[in-house]
Amino acid sequence: MNSESLSEVHSSVRTDKKGWRKVLAFLGPAYLVSVGYMDPGNWATDIAGGSEFGYKLIWVLLMSNIMALLLQSLSARLGIVKGLDLAQASKNAYPKWANIPLYILAEIAIAACDLAEIVGMAIGLSLLFDLPLIWGVSITALDTFLLLFLLKRGMRVMEVFIISLVFIIGVSFIIQMVIVAPVYGDVVKGFVPSDLGGNALYLAIGIIGATVMPHNLYLHSSLVQTRKIDRSFQGLKKAIKYNFIDTAIALNMAFFVNAAILVLAAAAFYTNGFYNVAEIQDASLLLENLFGNVAPTFFAIALIAAGQSSTITGTLAGQIVMEGHLNLRIQPWLRRLITRLLAIAPALFTIIYFGEEALGSLLILSQVVLSLQLGFAVIPLIHFNSDKKMMGEFAIKPWVKGLAWLIAAIIVYLNITLVIDEITSWAVNSGDNKVYIYTIVIPIAVACLALLVYVFIYPFLKKNEQNEQTETNHLPHGKAEDFSEGKMIEYKHIGITIDFSGNDQLVIQNALKQGGKSATYIFIHVVESAAARYLGKNTLDNETQLDIDNLKQYQEMLEELGYKTEQKIGFGSAPTEIVKIVQESKIDMLVMGAHGHKGLKDLVFGTTLDVVRHKVSIPILIIS
């Protein structure tokens, strides 16, 4: 099993080029990250801020972009220097008991982020094609297979696809800027910091919380490892520099999009007296009323592109978190489908039981969940980059560390404030359901806060410990163990699965090499006909008799050559019957051929091999 982060595309992009080609070789990962900074969650806060306060909050966008630039560059540095993503590093640094809630929180945050993208894309489809939201939400499940296709085509193809979507978003907003025609002198004044109070402070918190997303920190530390780099000091130094350039360009593009959304809302709504536009659908309707059909059309196109690009990167982050925290790898298509279903389920539930108008509240809830998890990604990231034993000469300088901790403190404080405000609001408006707030919501929030404090303090407590285990923890799977040759293993009862698929001779030949003439060879075949599934051993159909006769032929051939053989017939489910025969016959080694079907059929029927290897505790030799 590969230990690399996103092993299917790890070190798949070569960087051994010169001049501007070398710079271009490193460009890409940050663009995949940047789409999370222009997702529908950002749209909601930017539209609300621009419609209520005009251009006043642009400086907040700029400040949050600078915060994101520093944190994303730290994430990239960790991946480049240590070859670990943030989830892997957290797994190695914190006790096992702490990794379980850290994983659960990260998974919930990714599902919440994916939820915002699904809702945003469904709204975009509804605005553009007048498609009911419930159908739009359902259609988003299909992009799971789009992601699988893109990964198979290679990392560069995926990056080009995402950059194309980002380009569509940018062009859409440039066209809308021309249509709306803001006063650019007033836009420039918005970059001057101003006092924040009341709802302006609340929206500023929302903008920062929606901008710096935890899943992007996991994602960036993994994506930079798709580049095959020189691991020398100078090679690592150049890789960090080129990735910082990539990050600066990509996040500034994201800042342009977010600023464009806010400016669009300010010029279209604030200046025309519409001060409380919070819903994305309302924004599109007002654009149509004020400027005709062109502006809302490009608005919807940009929204669909933002939702699609963000869902792709969100599902990648889900894979990284599962593999990093739990060291658990499942089929990529299944991992992405799980992430998508976790997000689709609450969206469909909300539409069916509360109506389409409740999706706006669901978007807000998703941002609160994201806020709750952010500190659990930011704090470990700063700890790892500050650790000289871990990062060596690439540990961040004291002034960078101080700035990073200041940013972390601001983000955590603002996000905790946002969570407290939301819980207070729920308590006030919950009526008879207040008991759930006090018995479920508040205890969970307090427990999360306690874990956050632990995540911050623990590295300081362990800082002075220097032992072999600490060094080993910096590796994904620890060190190699001491090896001794031991006694020669002799297999006495070797099972051979036979499926008459044309691969039998190769399977039998390999089995004979394992035990020679001293072992007993047990031919195993399972009849999977409909009759066999219902009648079991009482099945006497033609297929069963032919299978028994064919097995006897194999037996006779081997016995003539001086080998000892037996045969066992199973009926019904192949994996279940093979496991049963292995246990009853005391087989100590199993030789199996690759399954007779591949590709799509494996998805439908499953693979016998995968099931058997998880249910038996003996060595299995697979012949393909």
UniProtKB/TrEMBL annotation:
Transmembrane regions listed in the UniProt entry: 20-38, 58-81, 102-127, 133-151, 160-180, 200-219, 240-270, 290-316, 337-355, 361-382, 403-420, 435-457
Gene Ontology MF: a single term: symporter activity
Gene3D superfamilies: HUPs
UspA domain residues: 491-623
Main localization (coarse): membrane
InterPro entries: NRAMP_fam (IPR001046), Rossmann-like_a/b/a_fold (IPR014729), UspA (IPR006016)
Cellular compartments per GO CC: plasma membrane
Keywords, comma-separated and alphabetical: Cell membrane, Ion transport, Membrane, Symport, Transmembrane, Transmembrane helix, Transport
Membrane topology: Multi-pass membrane protein
CDD domains on file: USP-like (cd00293)
Record-stated family: Belongs to the NRAMP family.
Protein name per UniProt: Divalent metal cation transporter MntH
